[in-house]
Write a structure and sequence with these properties.
Helices cover 42% and strands 18% of the residues. The protein is of the alpha/beta class and 375 residues long. It folds into three domains: 2-99 and 111-163, Rossmann fold (3-Layer(aba) Sandwich); 166-310, Lactate dehydrogenase/glycoside hydrolase, family 4, C-terminal (L-2-Hydroxyisocaproate Dehydrogenase, Chain A, domain 2, Alpha-Beta Complex), CATH 3.90.110.10; 315-367, no CATH class. The strands form four sheets. The chain has a six-stranded parallel beta sheet, sandwiched between helices. It has a three-stranded antiparallel beta sheet with strand order 7-8-9.
């Protein structure tokens, strides 16, 4: 299998390490990005680790700038990957945590929706480049897929699937249920639906008023009505609250890749499959992603829950042409703190809004004495 990695930041590096150490004979990896010296150094570490395990893996690096759609398309057309993994963004979502406490706390209340241009623009460029090649490529995206894929799905440019987010809650939920019902883990199934906005609450052991849906089964029998949901959710912080390494997130990429490439028939969870908002359980049947639904629960209801979560995240609506309308109360926070305001964003304007938001944040960070390492 030929796999192209676009960018190699914190998450991308974790995913790359995992993929290389799981590589099969004949797998080829190409890692593209703007800092070629860093990419060469970082991939050498992984190649050396693979050799420790007796694996000789073909890894190459290349200069790649996703702002340049034509160059990106040329790189893809030349390498002809079967899979692309991308987690590139203009600015890391966690960057605001470096601000002085009061500013961080205020900006955190805006949620992630108003920051969408920073996570949308590069995956939009990437998907345009993929379309230009005409190649049938599986694209997995780690850059805010709950929101970005809902936009790109409107214009036929959604990646195959996102990764992480709500999927991170599935393993600890299964572990807790296996203990409670005294059954092996493989006998426990969880079907979870929700937007990434609920994930921030689950890290604290609650849903915080954000809608989600959970169905649970043991030995194929539904036991959802037997659950003490507050107690069950209270077990999550032990795993999720301090998951800083992103190893769990990287593992979700591997499980989704195995599903979409036909290596497993298991049900997996991921955000943004087929351009849907929020996260869903799914499996691949006859080459197509099929959402797995519990009894008496429809896909329409799942979408409604995720769209409500999207509104809680600061996105009022997404029109059929990909135009995004942002919630006034969320955007007002960015206007007050950093002087940025965008209530309506046609997809064709995402690059200009991303550059303005990035510049305004850098200026603000400099003003409050924080070195603006925003990449």
């Amino acid at each position: 299998m030929k796999i192209l990695f676009v960018g190699l930041g914190n998450l991308g590096s974790q995913v790359f390490d995992l993929f290389v150490l799981r590589a099969q004979r004949g797998d080829q990896f190409l890692v593209g990005g703007r800092n070629l010296a860093y990419l060469r150094e970082r991939t050498r570490w992984t190649a050396a680790a693979a050799l420790q395990l007796g694996l000789s893996v073909q890894i190459e690096t290349t200069s790649l700038d996703v702002w340049n759609i034509d160059q990106t398309a040329q790189t893809i057309a030349t390498f002809k990957p079967e899979v692309i993994f991308s987690s590139v963004t203009v600015q890391r979502s966690s960057i605001i945590s470096q601000l002085p406490g009061p500013y961080f706390e205020q900006l955190a209340k805006a949620r992630s929706g108003p920051w969408m241009p920073l996570t949308l623009v590069l995956v939009y460029n990437l998907m345009q480049a993929v379309k230009h090649t005409g190649l049938p490529i599986t694209v997995l995206n780690g850059g805010s897929p709950d929101n970005a894929h809902a936009v790109l799905g409107k214009v036929g440019l959604a990646p195959t699937s996102g990764i992480g987010n709500l999927a991170l809650a599935v393993p600890p939920l299964k572990q807790a249920l296996a203990v409670q019902f005294h059954r092996p883990l493989e006998r426990v199934q969880v079907l979870l639906f929700g937007h990434s906005s609920v994930m921030q609450q689950l890290r604290k052991g609650t849903i915080g008023g954000v809608p989600m849906h959970l169905s649970a089964f043991v030995d194929g029998e539904e036991i959802t009505n037997q659950l003490d949901l507050p107690a069950l959710l209270g077990t999550l912080p032990a795993t999720l609250e301090h998951e800083y390494t992103q190893l769990l997130t990287a593992a979700t990429v591997a499980s989704v890749l195995d599903a979409v490439t036909g290596k497993t028939q298991e049900t997996v969870h991921a955000p943004g499959p087929r351009g849907l908002p929020g996260a869903y359980p799914f499996r691949v049947e006859n080459g197509s992603i099929t959402t797995v639904l519990p009894p008496r629960f429809s896909l329409e209801e799942a979408i409604r829950i995720n769209q409500e979560g999207q509104r809680r995240d600061g996105i009022e609506r997404i029109d059929d042409d990909g135009t995004v309308s942002f919630a006034e109360q969320n955007m007002a926070i960015l206007k007050e703190v950093i002087g940025y305001e965008c209530r309506r964003m046609p997809l064709s304007e995402v690059e200009s809004w991303a550059k303005e938001l990035h510049a305004r944040y850098r200026t603000f960070a400099d003003q409050v004495g924080v070195k603006s390492q925003t990449g």
